[in-house]
């Protein structure tokens, strides 16, 4: 039994997909049917249908066309670019009976080729006597957008193949001139046919070096040199993905506001403020909702607003340290921190404890957080100290917050939010003070640096400056 029922050729404009399609069609028993799921046309610009299915029928039911491709005689497939029908991409990537061919080309070359084709109107070349030439202008912003689209698509494809345990046949633009590689592709597809020559119908359109095709080549070279090709500036992230935590959300009854708390933040203050907005009736707040109930709440309140609140990472870490570690909420973790990480904290809450010990212990806790968030400790990454970036990304699996507020701006921002909803503005209650010592009593540059190392992504993504 053949391994594959059909194939998808994952490519982009000006990567050589027309040429690869011609090579595939030269294999006996193989048919590449063009850009079958291009939103503007079906298969080819002048075509009215593909395998008896027209564009309207395809748009209404893309799976029907996939079934037709699967059922047609021989091995059939199609070219697919990042802006084609995303429903088809999900289906094809998840289907192990669909062969994946990934065609790539140097992004700078494909960008310049696209600009030349745009300028000349010549998208294919079959006769070199009709070749049109044009020097084009490199646009840095346009190229970076082009590169971002390419990379996002490639990462999406790679991730889908990884999680489903599949592999693809990767082929580069230059490989299209290699008979051995193309016959290797035929072997991957499981067909017996082989190519004996490369054919001569389609020609390379712009064989000159980039310096001869780009009018402002020096500017282009300077821009490309500035791009972080190897992502050297990336902040590594080893935190596991978090769920949306919908049962932790708190929704108003009269006020169409949804609070999405980040543990370790001013959760108690904001919840009390939201209750005051309901006339001081905490029982009127909706808690522990499931996703179904929360959707019903949303449908019943058009114009509802959702929000979360960021706390400065060092202040959040200190609050959690005082409340959960020193306060005894996490007794087992407290024990491990004392024994394995040698934090100078009392064995039980309320034991004798000096300010210098507190500072030393908090620094040790920040060191633990750095290792814990990098999954180097074997202990859970608790929501109280998970990075705020990871928590908000988790919210987005259900619903991203409309507003991301900051603790230091809460009085003004919550007042503005209440006014938008047509409610009187209650005062924001005072938050609990860290005990036995406040952050202000021990804070210095060393503590700030340790917090910035532990929460590098939060500092980067949310632009946190040193505390106060």
Mean pLDDT: 90
Tally of individual helices:
19
For the secondary structure, the number of strands is 11
Structural class: alpha/beta
Q: How are the strands of the largest sheet arranged?
A: 2-5-1-6-7
CATH class of the domain at 6-226: Alpha Beta
Helix and strand arrangement:
Elements: E1 6-10, H1 17-25, E2 30-32, E3 49-50, E4 53-54, H2 55-60, H3 62-71, E5 75-80, H4 86-94, E6 98-104, H5 107-120, H6 140-164, E7 169-172, H7 179-189, H8 210-213, H9 217-226, E8 250-251, E9 257-259, H10 267-277, H11 291-299, E10 305-310, H12 313-326, H13 331-339, H14 355-373, H15 388-395, E11 403-406, H16 410-420, H17 439-442, H18 445-454, H19 456-462
Parallel strand pairs: 1-5, 1-6, 2-5, 6-7, 9-10, 10-11
Antiparallel strand pairs: 3-4, 8-9
Helix pairs in contact: 14-18
Would you write up a description of this structure?
Helix 14 (355-373) runs parallel beside helix 18 (445-454). The chain has a 5-stranded parallel sheet, with helices on both faces. Strands 8-9-10-11 form a 4-stranded mixed sheet, with helices on one face. Strands 3-4 form a two-stranded antiparallel sheet. It has a domain at 6-226: Rossmann fold (3-Layer(aba) Sandwich). The longest helix is centred in the first third of the chain and has 25 residues, at 140-164. The model has no long low-confidence stretch (mean pLDDT 90). It is built from 19 helices and 11 strands. With 468 residues, it is of the alpha/beta class. Strand 8 (250-251) and strand 9 form a beta hairpin. It has helices at 17-25, 55-60, 62-71, 86-94, 107-120, 140-164, 179-189, 210-213, 217-226, 267-277, 291-299, 313-326, 331-339, 355-373, 388-395, 410-420, 439-442, 445-454, 456-462, and strands spanning 6-10, 30-32, 49-50, 53-54, 75-80, 98-104, 169-172, 250-251, 257-259, 305-310, 403-406.
């Amino acid at each position: 039994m053949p391994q594959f029922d059909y194939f998808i050729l994952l490519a982009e404009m000006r990567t050589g997909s027309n040429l690869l399609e011609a090579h595939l069609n030269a294999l006996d028993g193989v048919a590449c049917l063009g850009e079958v799921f291009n939103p503007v046309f079906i298969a080819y610009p002048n075509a009215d249908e593909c395998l008896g299915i027209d564009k309207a029928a395809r748009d209404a039911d893309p799976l029907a066309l996939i079934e037709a491709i699967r059922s047609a005689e021989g091995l059939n497939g199609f070219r697919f670019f990042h802006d084609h029908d995303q429903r088809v991409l999900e289906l094809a990537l998840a289907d192990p009976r669909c062969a994946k061919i990934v065609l790539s080309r140097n992004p700078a070359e494909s960008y310049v080729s696209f600009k030349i084709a745009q300028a000349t109107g010549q998208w294919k070349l079959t006769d070199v006597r009709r070749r049109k030439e044009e020097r084009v202008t490199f646009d840095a912003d346009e190229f970076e957008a082009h590169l971002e689209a390419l990379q996002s698509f490639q990462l999406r494809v790679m991730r889908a193949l990884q999680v489903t345990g599949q592999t693809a046949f990767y082929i580069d633009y230059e490989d299209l001139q290699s008979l051995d590689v193309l016959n290797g592709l035929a072997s991957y597809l499981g067909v017996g046919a082989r190519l004996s020559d490369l054919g001569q119908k389609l020609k390379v359109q712009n064989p000159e070096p980039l310096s001869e095709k780009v009018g402002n080549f020096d500017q282009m070279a300077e821009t490309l040199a500035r791009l972080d090709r190897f992502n050297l500036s990336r902040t590594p992230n080893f935190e596991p993905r978090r769920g949306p935590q919908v049962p932790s959300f708190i929704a108003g009854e009269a006020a169409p506001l949804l609070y999405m708390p980040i543990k370790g933040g001013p959760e108690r203050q904001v919840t009390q403020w939201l209750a005051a907005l309901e006339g001081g009736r905490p029982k009127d707040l909706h808690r522990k909702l499931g996703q179904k109930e929360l959707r019903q709440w949303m449908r019943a309140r058009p114009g509802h607003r959702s929000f979360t609140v960021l706390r400065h990472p060092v202040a959040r870490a200190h609050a959690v340290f005082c409340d959960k570690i020193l306060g005894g909420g996490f007794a087992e973790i407290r024990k491990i921190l004392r024994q394995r990480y040698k934090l100078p904290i009392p064995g039980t809450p309320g034991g004798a404890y000096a300010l210098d010990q507190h500072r030393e212990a908090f620094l040790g806790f920040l060191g633990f957080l750095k290792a814990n968030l990098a999954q180097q400790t074997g202990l859970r990454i608790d929501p109280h100290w998970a990075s705020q970036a990871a928590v908000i990304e988790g919210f987005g699996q259900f619903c991203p917050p409309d507003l991301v507020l900051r603790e230091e701006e809460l009085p003004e921002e919550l007042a503005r939010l209440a006014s938008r909803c047509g409610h009187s503005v209650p005062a924001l209650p005072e938050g609990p003070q860290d005990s036995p010592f406040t952050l202000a009593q021990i804070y210095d540059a060393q503590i700030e640096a340790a917090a910035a190392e532990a929460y590098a992504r939060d500092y980067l993504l949310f632009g946190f400056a040193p505390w106060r």
